Amino acid sequence: MTPDVTIIGAGLGGLVLARVLHVHGIPATVYEAEPSPAARSQGGMLDIHDHNGQLALKAADLMDEFRGLTLEGRQAMRVLDPDGTVLFDKADDGTGGRPEVQRGELRQVLLDSLPVDTVRWGRKVSSTRALGGGRHEVAFAGGGTVVTSLLVGADGAWSRVRPLLSTATPEYVGRSVVETYLFDADTRHPAAAKVVGDGSMIAPTPGREIFAHRERGDTLHAYVGLSEPRDWFAAIDFTDAAMATARIAQEFDGWAPELTALITDSDIAPVLRPLYALPTGHRWDRVSGVTLVGDAAHLAAPDGEGANLAMLDGAELGKALAAHPDDIEAALTEYEQAMFPRSAEAATFEGAEAHGTDSDDSTAHDLISAFTRHEQAR
Question: Which has fewest Cβ within 10 Å: 151, 211, 317, 334?
Answer without folding.
Answer: 334
